[in-house]
Batch of 2 targets.
Target 1
Amino acid sequence: MTGEPMSWSGWGDPAKARELPEPVRALLRDLLGVRAPGTPAASLEQVVLPAVALAEPLLGALAKVVGDGHVLTGHEDRVRHTRGKSTPDLLRMRAGDGSDAPDAVVLPGSHEEVAELLRLCSRERVAVVPFGGGTSVVGGLAASREGFAGVIALDLGRLDRLLFVDEESMVAGFEPGVRAPDAERLLAGRGLTLGHFPQSFEYATLGGFAAARSSGQASAGYGRFDDVVVGLTLATPSGTLELGRAPKSAAGPDLRQLVLGSEGAFGVITSLRLRVRRAPAERRYEGWRFASFAEGSAAVRALAQEGPLPTVLRLSDETETMIGLAKPDEIGTGQADASRASDAAAGSGGAGGSGCLLIAGFEGARVGSRHAAASAVLARMGGEPLGPGPGESWEHGRFSAPYLRDSLLAAGATVETLETAGFWANLPRLYDAVRLALLGALGSPLVMCHISHVYETGASLYFTVVTPQDADPVAQWDRAKAAVNAAIVEAGGTITHHHGVGRDHLDAYASELGPVGAGILRAVKAELDPAGILNPGALIPPPAS
Ligand SMILES: Cc1cc2nc3c(=O)[nH]c(=O)nc-3n(C[C@H](O)[C@H](O)[C@H](O)COP(=O)(O)OP(=O)(O)OC[C@H]3O[C@@H](n4cnc5c(N)ncnc54)[C@H](O)[C@@H]3O)c2cc1C
């Protein structure tokens, strides 16, 4: 495994933490009314955890399966496996609230050990939360204790091997705990890539991508992660499910789709067979300007429907364009931020005068001809070419933006992201509904949006919100999130395009599924996990009372 352990209370590699420049602090204060929180963030030692509920004989039985040294009950190990990395998760951690900590962290070393652990935990009524990179932003890792003897985090980090590469079929086999950068490194030696680059790339795992139906920044060219998975193995308390003996099949419903997005509630993914592509020899990234988000959206739709699609396609709305989130590596450079932020805050998330930035990235085969054809479409739709500068800047800073969140939280601003998707004809309504819900719930937040996952029939909308923290920022965000979830359901969008359901989206997901759909999920859960030990409280809507 490469890389530093992730910050226990924030995002990413602690060495890459970024300070907010003073002009931005001043603007947050003067224009959004942001004030530094009264109490400093808790230290690791100050985080309060519940006492370990699992009795010694049970801890011993777990250790018998995975070996001594692979059952951890130390303070830091439990803290590091408490919840995920949503903003409420980080706010709770900064407040020293470790109440959702697992009793133990268990690290299996093989499929057989996972299967044995699931049998043991079913027998002893121990809840099991599969844990990949720990980057869930939907409450996918918070342990529910009610009715259980205890909770374990099943950390898949020891299952970190490349299993095989079949270059004839262009399929590679991996264990689930391989982190995305390690997967790319393992494939690079053979000139191959998965092409999956979500913003959580540095820490998320392949098993987590499959379990949460992740979508990466290059989804226009490489597809979503569910397009990449051709086969997988699922260990369940009821036995092992092997799926994917051919790329496509007419033998009934495709059960792979039942496992993709199952968020650890049906079983533990212990291996994956993934489609690989030749690593691109050529890359070309550039920027375009559109007069408005509506004009830019029409251009993006034209590319999705007529082709050719670039590998990366991202359109920021007016506010995101002004604030510069499309060029995150430039944020933090001082005065330039200040004037951009001032413009954006003055508009309180409204339309500004600088138009909208579109980033188009071309990788792989026929870059020249695809670029020429796509450029003709973008020019016809009113786009103004800005050259390679904005595109290269975006590519350079593509994983940087989350590092700003910790500095913003420390300064007293809540910053969080949320997303949805819909058909093209409904997208403007969905955009307005989410913005109005946020403005209604938070007063005058900064609301930014971009489109970065497109299909012939529709697209996702990805929002970033900045607002001053009140005395209880978790409750404040919970209220805003509830308002947005209701607005998305009402406006006919899906509650999530790629973050998943977890616990945070459960109510809205139940509305989206309807009673018959929810009943199907409960029936599958009852078949695969009769004792209900797997990630209880996540994904599966409870029966209506
Ligand atoms: C800063 C940031 C940026 C992000 N950017 C993106 C993005 O661009 N695109 C995107 O799609 N998502 C993004 N996410 C969300 C998150 O990274 C994804 O959901 C990712 O797929 C989670 O992978 P993970 O390995 O961290 O899984 P975890 O967070 O550990 O787990 C996620 C869920 O999957 C289950 N699970 C994990 N491994 C297994 C397994 N082997 N078997 C069964 N269940 C399992 C867990 O129980 C949990 O329910 C972002 C998150 C953050 C914090």
Target 2
Amino acid sequence: MSDRRAPLRTVDEHLALVLEATAALPDVELPLLDALDLSCAEDVHAPLRLPRFDNSAMDGYAARAADVAGASAATPVTLPVVGDIGAGQSPTPVTHLEPGTTAKIMTGAPMPAGADTVVPYEWTDRGVAEVSIDRPAAAGQHVRYAGEDVAEGDLLVEVGTTLGPRHLGLLASVGRSVVRVRRRPRVLIVSTGSELREPGVALVPGADDDAIYDGNSYLLAGAALRAGAVPLRVGLVPDRPDAFLAALDDALGAPDGADLVVTSGGISMGDYDVVKAALTPGGTVWFGGLAMQPGKPQGFGAVAAGGRQVPFFALPGNPVSSYLSFEMFVRPALRRMMGLTPESRPTVRARLTHAVTSPAGRRQFLRGVVTIGSDGNTVTEVAPVGGSGSHLVGDLAASDALIVVPEDVTAVAAGDTVTVIRLDQD
Ligand SMILES: Nc1nc2c(c(=O)[nH]1)N[C@H]1C(S)=C(S)[C@@H](COP(=O)(O)OP(=O)(O)OC[C@H]3O[C@@H](n4cnc5c(N)ncnc54)[C@H](O)[C@@H]3O)O[C@H]1N2
Ligand code: MOO
């Protein structure tokens, strides 16, 4: 039993303890597309230069600048066309250009030695055997030089870079098909409560009169996916410690078992608080209260799984409490496991539209909806949605932000400026 007189742990203290107990997962090699949004775990150096060879930036004629220096509309220069160079024609049909000649060349095709400029089609009569050029072309014009973008050995992507589409494009451009990254954590999600039923299953009059659908595991699994993790939903677990421990053993014993466990429900002061009852004897999970509303009851620690210690989050059952606890503690932990910075949600200051109150000594997270200014970007106002009740899932879904009321504030007036955490944005 937790001591009800024990002082509440602050949100910041709890987060610090959670992050201290969480480490980056080992790195793995993945195909490029599977590495999108993951943290790179190697310094990637260019195995080749880009462009690989001098090539043309235009469809036209490879020429020597000196040969066309005197060209004008009134006195065009006419030169023989000795060949036709397309991209990807190996072996290249013209590798050397004699003075006084030209070769047709397409965008991306290799420049023949001796040529130092490209005359675009638009400056010519597009001749086939010989071409008439009506303007001078400077040396280097429309030539893309080998290595001007990336030199061999250049550092392309540094350890810790979050790989986006542009990084994947660069890695592929130097011939890489795989890259070492911090992999996505597998998150076991367990909903506890004998009252719970699977969505999609009809409620039976009589037997299910006090039943409710399991919203939490979808809420938490969705949040885990959004955080970049792989959620593994375990079926509903009734309020029996033996059933809970058996379900946990089963899931954690599986090959490719979880890297982190999240349960919801069963941790408060009730007579059937299954998670607390099952794990308190082991002593590896702390149960207590946080100076936070919603989300006061919490459990955090580790459980053994196949010789490993897996971080364990016992979140409160009320849906809003569960979600907020995920946002505040589980998401940062998952990000750390993925080698990302734990904090990611943009926090802004905005004008509160309506007065709110908050319990003394607790950091309150109210749900809100932001108004975006005429620049399409700046948050100007935030309006509270619904009340502070942690069962209000309708209001939770309607919100797009959290309004933070600090521990030492019990009332905020309409028009005051508050801190706002924007949800669904990284
Ligand atoms: N005497 C006290 N009672 C309670 C306290 C307290 O300090 N003293 N704290 C309250 C607070 S705050 C919260 S939060 C809850 C947390 O309780 P539990 O974590 O033990 O959660 P449960 O009792 O199992 O469930 C609470 C509530 O949430 C519903 N629930 C649970 N799981 C789901 C789910 N998967 N999907 C949808 N809804 C779920 C459940 O039916 C209950 O209504 O304790 C307060 N009580
Ligand atoms: O803290 Mo409970 O999480 O307020 O509903």
